[in-house]
Write a structure and sequence with these properties.
eight-stranded mixed beta sheet
Length: 818
């Protein structure tokens, strides 16, 4: 990968807090940072052979002595040269091969008389002289997002256009430099990048997912060599879901000299929920394991989805009388399945096959060589030795693919689950937590035979009545093997004395046995810990178009009275972040817990623009940042005031980065609601942030001048009436200090008072312990001084509440979320 950059992208950060002369290079650092609207670096993707011998200069021995020192798959072979000539003659090809001074490969004779180091150097020069360069596609030429290998030895690159509304998957033949477009994604909002492109172990023919039970009778189930299938996630429906694609080798329709586009075979998941990751794929069990939000956007669980939905296909065939009663050890009649392994007799009669053979059919044949030979023989007899072009015409035949299925939930405990699965999809490590239940890590076994194994046997007696697109009616859960860690039994958590004093191996084993028998871990009572869980609230936006979720931390009424309380809003509010969910991180938010212990009610509200709610919810802020976010934070304050929890005359807000930006915007755009703000490392004008992030949400500055102006804090400064403290590190490499400097100039010009907390040696957030502790003290002091009133400030100081070393309720002096 070559990035051609120039000095126009350079931004210097000076280390003002260290000694030395001003010209000393140790006092500043250069950063390549293109601002919104400026030119991005030119990017070109190249392929070069780099093998072990080239890098380490190892000698060859034995039968390998006569080999060339470069990889036999190198672009320098004769076939590759001919392919490149063909590619170069095609004027439609967007990708070319270029060389950097042609070098000759060392011969075997020369290799025997040359030192290993010299041989490696010569091989490296030869390899680098034969680099194959792939230029960006014209429709998506700005950003190279992902690069991965494909089963046929080619590579796949994901490219985005400047507006990030188009994403193209480009297949690259590294041997001859030719390319083709595998898939194109387009969006009217923006395209969120992800890591959910997974290539399957074998290619899947569309008829394997054909709801009609056979499709075109002339379409063979086998596919040409080089074909492959893959899963890809898309938000085309407004929610992130998985789609199954198959690429047919040599299928030249809509191709660019390297093969054609992959065909959509089936939508794997669907509905108003999001698939967030692919945990594993087991084709033998026809299952894709994913994590997502099917049960609630406040939780994350492990789910199972059918890959081809072959069990539903068998159920539908049974309903039509094409499949006999099915059991785990019974046989199946399949009519018109289009699979060569169904037998050599006429498909209209039906062939009696064992269930395991049927499964082998859907997996692409049996495991033995004899089965493979049978497949080849049967395919030839049924297709009459068709020419390859018939594969492609049949592939374009419109079929009726099975629709998306409802997932089966495998994780039992409520809350947020992070899943790691072994490659064979047999064992998972589940790290989870919930409100009032601290983090635990447990190892589970997946259902033997897969979660859909019993679906076939359950078809008996249904008579086709349950033929909906539900994946299954049974719940095949996980089996607990052992617990790796459970913070509920960690004495550092400050748990109840009974737990802390009984934290023995016997106690732990009893707990594990209890988990096995009950099937779930009973959540510890929130009162057992020093970190009480917040209340989760839901309420509509001011315009009634969406539902907002919030986490409310209430002060102890026995200490601070029944309320209403001074309110502090903790905000981030930007894309790709969710602050409110059912996880232990809510309880472990040290800043929120400390403010709550001091008598403040604290609320976190995920406004429109936050993640895990779908593209419509996230994309509502498009091209006008800082408007709907402020309205939604105002709605949260008014909800709490209406419920008698918050004092509407004493409301503060704090946030960091995007949250610092919103804290300043709330103080300026809603001065009647917010009276105090702490803005940490705030973006104050989006023309000073980087291209890829800013332009995704705001577009280019010259195309959205009014949006950039309205979304900056500057023009709203004259409205500010409350107290503002800005916190920033002078060597912040993410949100440069110039954002704060520009805001200060506007504050001075408008005659507005402000407070400034600077950390000369810190970056985007303070990292050193002394700086973090000092910052937390200053932030809490600021809210106490400006929201609690003079008498209460004296009270806090008298009780030592303002000292980070003396905090009531056992809360440790550590900063929480910024």
């Amino acid at each position: 990968l070559i990035n051609r950059r120039s000095n126009r992208f350079r931004h210097q950060l000076y280390h003002h807090g260290i000694g030395g002369g001003g010209g000393d290079e140790s006092t500043y650092e250069d950063h390549r940072y293109p601002f919104a609207g400026e030119s991005n670096p030119d990017v070109t993707l190249g392929y070069v052979v780099v093998d072990r011998r080239t890098v380490l200069g190892e000698e060859e021995n034995g039968d390998d002595e006569e080999r060339m020192v470069y990889d036999s798959r190198s672009v320098g072979d004769e076939d590759g040269e001919e392919d490149r000539k063909d590619c170069a003659r095609d004027s439609t090809s967007d990708v070319r091969q270029t060389t950097m001074g042609q070098q000759h490969a060392p011969t075997a004779a020369a290799a025997r008389t040359t030192s290993p180091a010299a041989l490696a150097s010569a091989a490296a020069r030869f390899n680098w002289s034969n680099v194959v360069w792939f230029h960006p596609p014209p429709d998506a030429s700005e950003y190279l997002a992902r690069v991965s290998w494909l089963p046929d030895g080619s590579a796949c690159a994901q490219w985005q256009n400047r507006a990030q509304t188009t994403l193209q998957l480009i297949r690259m033949d590294v041997k001859n430099g030719c390319t083709s477009v595998l898939h194109t994604e387009c969006s009217d909002v923006w395209i969120n990048l992800h890591h959910m492109m997974k290539v399957l172990p074998r290619a899947i023919h569309p008829m394997e997912c054909d709801a009609a039970g056979g499709g075109s009778s002339s379409s063979p189930l086998s596919l040409p060599d080089g074909s492959f299938s893959f899963l890809f996630a898309s938000e085309r429906t407004g929610y992130s879901h998985l789609y199954l694609y198959t690429y047919i080798a040599g299928h030249t329709k809509n191709s660019n000299n390297g093969g054609g586009e992959a065909r959509l075979v089936r939508q794997i998941s669907g509905g108003e929920w999001m698939v967030e990751s692919i945990a594993g794929i087991n084709m033998n069990h026809d299952v894709v394991y994913v994590t997502g939000t099917y049960d609630s956007p406040l939780e994350r669980h492990l789910y199972a989805l059918p890959l081809t939905n072959r069990f539903l296909l068998l159920q539908q065939q049974q309903a039509r009388g094409e499949v006999s009663t099915v059991g785990d050890n019974e046989d199946v009649f399949i009519d018109g399945c289009g699979d060569a392994t169904c037998g050599t007799t006429d498909s209209s009669v039906g062939v009696r096959r064992g269930l395991q053979q049927v499964m082998d059919t859907f997996r692409g044949g049996g495991e033995s060589q004899r089965d493979d030979d049978d497949v080849t023989s049967a395919t030839s007899s049924r297709s009459g030795h068709k020419q390859q072009q018939q594969y492609y015409s049949d592939f374009d035949t419109i079929t009726t693919p099975l629709g998306p299925s409802d997932p089966i939930r495998l994780t039992i405990d409520p809350g947020m689950h992070t899943i790691v699965m072994d490659k064979a999809c047999r064992v998972v490590v589940d790290t989870s937590s919930d409100l009032g239940r601290p983090t635990s890590s447990r190892v589970y076994a997946l259902p033997v035979g897969g979660p859909f194994r019993r679906c076939v046997s359950m078809m008996e007696g249904t008579n086709g009545e349950n033929s909906s697109n539900s994946a299954a009616t049974t719940r095949a859960g996980l089996t607990l093997l052992f617990a790796l860690y459970d913070a509920a039994y960690d004495e550092k958590m400050g748990s109840s004395p009974s737990l802390a004093t009984n934290n023995t191996s016997n106690q732990y084993m009893v707990s594990t046995a209890s988990i096995i028998s009950n099937g779930a871990l009973a959540a510890q009572s929130a009162s057992s810990f020093a970190f009480p869980a917040p209340d989760i609230l839901s309420f509509p936006t001011s315009d009634g178009t969406a539902t907002l979720h919030a986490a409310l931390y209430r002060p102890d009424p026995a200490v601070h009275g029944p309320g209403p309380y001074p309110l502090v809003c903790a905000v981030y509010g930007g894309p790709h972040v969710q602050r409110v969910n059912r996880s232990w991180s809510q309880c472990a938010d040290m800043r929120a817990q400390r403010l709550c212990s001091m008598g403040f009610a604290v609320v976190k509200c995920d406004n429109r623009g936050s993640s895990r709610r779908g593209l419509e919810f996230e994309g509502a802020i498009r091209r006008r940042l800082g408007r709907l976010e402020v309205l939604d934070q105002v709605a949260a304050v008014r909800q709490l005031a209406m419920r008698g929890i918050a004092d509407p005359t004493r409301v503060g807000i704090y946030g960091w980065s995007y949250g610092g930006y919103l804290a300043a915007m709330c103080l300026c755009r809603a001065p009647d609601v917010f009276h105090v703000a702490v803005a940490g490392a705030p973006v104050t004008s989006w023309d000073g942030y980087d291209t890829h992030y800013t332009e995704r949400y705001m577009g280019l500055p010259h195309e959205n001048q009014s949006g950039y102006r309205e979304s900056a804090v500057f023009d709203h400064v004259p409205n500010m009436r409350g107290k503002l403290m800005i916190v920033h590190g002078l060597i912040d490499e993410n949100v440069h200090f110039r954002h704060t400097a520009r805001l200060i100039n506007r504050l001075i010009a408008a005659g507005k008072d402000y407070d400034l907390l600077i950390f000369p040696d810190e970056r985007h957030s303070p990292r050193r312990l002394r700086d973090r502790v000092y910052m937390e003290k200053r932030i809490s002091d600021y809210f106490v001084r400006n929201l609690l009133g003079t008498s209460q400030v004296e009270n806090q100081h008298r009780n030592g509440m303002n000292d980070c070393g003396n905090i009531s309720g056992g809360v440790r002096p550590m900063a929480g979320h910024l």
